[in-house]
Write a structure and sequence with these properties.
The protein is of the alpha+beta class. It has helices spanning about 1-25, 30-35, 50-60, 65-70, 105-110; strands at about 35, 45-50, 75-80, 95, 115, 120, 125-135. Helix content is about 40%, strand content about 25%. A hairpin with a 2-residue loop joins strand 6 (about 120) and strand 7 (about 125-135). Helix 3 (about 50-60) packs antiparallel against helix 5. The chain starts with a helix and ends with a strand.
């Protein structure tokens, strides 16, 4: 009887452990389950919702020590714009930069951007965006 009971307890404990792991992992978020489209697959590309805001964001994030020394550069960031027009922060990646010290500033700009989302067949969808951000003293 004791052997039978301890085996049942072990199975119950193992099942509880698996259930706990599943609860910790949580359900995959909705964004991860939605399809992701490249620009070539879209009928309308995502557009920055407030283009005037971009210049202000770039100026605000431009490291003063670089601006004062006249050092500019170009950073290409890639990220996902959700169907809601918001940039998915975890998706932001620096793809290329002429001045590595500007990479963090460009990532900060990307985080704060809002878009009119890309459309596929008239429906707002998640899409990949590659955006150049230029820091210039001019």
């Amino acid at each position: 009887m004791m052997k039978r009971c301890s085996g049942a307890l072990r199975r119950l404990a193992a099942a509880g452990f698996v259930a706990a792991l599943l609860m910790l992992a949580g359900a995959p978020d909705a964004a991860a389950q939605e399809a992701l489209y490249s620009p070539a697959e879209l009928s309308t590309l995502p557009k920055i919702a407030a283009p005037g805001k971009v210049k202000s964001l770039i100026e605000r994030t431009y490291p003063p020590e670089l601006r004062n020394r006249g050092i500019g550069g170009r950073v290409q960031v890639q990220f996902i714009v959700g169907a809601d027009g918001k940039v998915e922060p975890a998706s932001i990646k620096v793809m290329a930069t002429t001045a590595p010290v500007l990479a963090d500033a460009a990532v900060e700009v990307a985080r704060m951007l809002e878009f009119n989302p890309g459309l596929k067949d008239g429906k707002a969808v998640r899409s990949q965006v590659l955006l150049p951000i230029v820091y210039s003293t001019n």
